[in-house]
């Protein structure tokens, strides 16, 4: 009984950990599936991330407590745990789930590693270059930044590009003879994140 309870708790903690990082897992899955527009689908979960992390840690700690605590005299007397537990109820399985959970919780910090490097164009005519600051809502991690960079970077004439989820913006420099701000905004919208405002810097 104790083993079944700890394995159920382990699975619950893994699911909660996935939920906590779903806002950053989705952009990577969108990249792999070639479906850019769903990248921002779970960004609404970001405000709940600290709570989900807390629940994950508590549930996992409780699972380990259930697994490691000594059996009571009643459990020994009734031979409740006499048969050897299956793999799914073992410490090894709980250990695997714990490692998986830690990897999922840390996902937002390394999600950008899944994205290719964005190649920018070299400026041919500096006089035709313009720089815009685009305020974007919905970005929650470095993976989101890379997703926006990837889409904007596909446009011709982009010579400078900085995206920050912390500042909720992108600063884009491009040759106006090759692209325009409407195309840049469309590239952002294509990711599922939303353009809130646009300001021309130069």
Describe the structure in your own words.
The protein has 202 residues and is of the alpha+beta class. Helix content is 49%, strand content 15%. The protein contains seven helices and four strands. It has helices at residues 2-33, 49-68, 73-77, 91-105, 107-110, 142-153, 181-190, and strands at residues 129-137, 158-164, 169-175, 194-200. A four-stranded antiparallel sheet has the order 2-3-1-4, with helices on one face. A hairpin with a 4-residue loop joins strand 2 (158-164) and strand 3 (169-175). Helix 1 (2-33) packs antiparallel against helix 2 (49-68). It is elongated. The model has no long low-confidence stretch (mean pLDDT 82). Keywords: Cell inner membrane, Cell membrane, Membrane, Mercuric resistance, Mercury, Metal-binding, Transmembrane, Transmembrane helix, Transport. It is found in: Cell inner membrane.
Sum up the structure in keywords.
single chain; 202 residues; alpha+beta; 4-stranded antiparallel sheet; 7 helices; 49% helix
């Amino acid at each position: 009984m104790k083993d079944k309870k700890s394995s159920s708790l382990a699975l619950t903690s893994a699911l909660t950990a996935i939920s906590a990082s779903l806002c950053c897992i989705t952009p990577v899955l969108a990249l792999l599936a070639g479906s850019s527009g769903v990248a921002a689908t779970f960004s609404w979960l970001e405000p709940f991330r600290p709570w989900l992390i807390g629940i994950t840690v508590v549930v996992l700690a409780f699972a380990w407590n259930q697994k490691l605590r000594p059996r009571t005299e009643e459990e020994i007397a009734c031979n409740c745990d006499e048969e050897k537990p299956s793999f799914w109820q073992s410490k090894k399985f709980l250990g695997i789930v714990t490692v998986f959970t830690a990897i999922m919780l840390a996902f937002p910090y390394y999600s950008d590693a899944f994205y290719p490097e964005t190649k920018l164009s070299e400026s041919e005519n500096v006089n035709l270059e313009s720089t815009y600051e685009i305020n974007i809502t919905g970005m929650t991690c470095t993976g989101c930044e890379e997703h926006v960079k990837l889409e904007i970077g596909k446009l011709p004439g982009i010579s400078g590009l900085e995206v920050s989820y912390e500042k909720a913006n992108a600063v884009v420099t491009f040759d106006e003879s090759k692209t325009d701000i409407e195309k840049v905004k469309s590239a952002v919208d294509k990711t599922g994140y939303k353009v809130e405002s646009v300001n021309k810097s130069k």
